[in-house]
Design goal:
The protein is an alpha/beta fold. The protein has a domain of 69 residues: Nucleotidyltransferase, domain 5 (2-Layer Sandwich). It contains 3 helices and 5 strands; from the N terminus they run αβββαβαβ. Strands 3-2-1-4-5 form a 5-stranded mixed beta sheet. It is elongated, with a radius of gyration of 31 Å.
Length: 145
């Protein structure tokens, strides 16, 4: 008679081994909730003066401190950081705003419907106020987006 071998299964000790699987479902839930929150709140963060900017190829500017932005809307209204200023007072207001700043740098946003001559007048007032650097804010062309 042949001896019968008995095969017994070894007991696995699951309590001692760390679980090697990551439960992804809660992670996906949290990421989707955050995505929805950011999608809802992002349009609310953009407030300001509506300006139809011209399109041009340029490099992005990395801003480290709060910069002064001068905006010209299509009704020829001049705004310095959202405060409306008449053209006659622009030079004195800019001199006062830049009196205690080390960098005399200003960014200009002008609606594309504003006549070029008016933009040049505003730029002349900016130069008379002693602004050293003048940057133009544009939008990238549609084919780049």
């Amino acid at each position: 008679m042949k001896p019968v071998m008995r095969y017994t299964r070894k007991r696995q000790r699951t309590e001692e081994r760390p679980m090697a699987e990551i439960n992804v479902t809660p992670l996906v839930d949290v990421v989707l909730v955050l995505l929805i929150i950011f999608m809802v709140t992002a349009p609310m963060l953009q407030t300001g003066i509506d300006v139809n900017l011209p399109r041009a190829k340029s490099q992005n500017v990395h801003v480290t401190e709060e910069k002064v932005v001068l905006t010209i809307d299509k009704a020829r209204g001049i705004f310095v950081n959202k405060a409306q200023i008449p053209l006659a007072e622009l030079g004195t207001r800019l001199e006062g705003a830049f009196a205690n700043r080390s960098e005399r740098e200003l960014y200009l946003r002008a609606d594309r419907a504003v006549p070029y001559g008016f933009v040049v007048e505003v730029m002349a007032e900016i130069r008379k106020a002693g602004i050293d650097k003048l940057g133009m804010i544009t939008e990238p062309p549609e084919d780049i987006k």
